[in-house]
Amino acid sequence: MIWRDEHGRRLDDYPQPSVAVDVALLTLDQDGRLAVVVHARPGAHEHGRPALPGTFLRVDRRETLREAALRALRDKVNVTGREPRQLAVFDDPDRDPRGRVLSVAHVDLVPPDRITGTTGVLAPVGPLPHPLAYDHERVVAAAIDHVRAAYRRLPDPAGLAGAEFTLLELQQVHEAVLGEPLQKDTFRRHTAPDLVETGRVRAGTVGKPARTFRRR
Amino acid sequence: MIWRDEHGRRLDDYPQPSVAVDVALLTLDQDGRLAVVVHARPGAHEHGRPALPGTFLRVDRRETLREAALRALRDKVNVTGREPRQLAVFDDPDRDPRGRVLSVAHVDLVPPDRITGTTGVLAPVGPLPHPLAYDHERVVAAAIDHVRAAYRRLPDPAGLAGAEFTLLELQQVHEAVLGEPLQKDTFRRHTAPDLVETGRVRAGTVGKPARTFRRR
DNA sequence: TCAATAGTGTCTCTGAGACATTATCTG
DNA sequence: CAGATAATGTCTCAGAGACACTATTGA
Question: Does B210 touch chain A (CB under 8 A)?
Answer without folding.
Answer: no
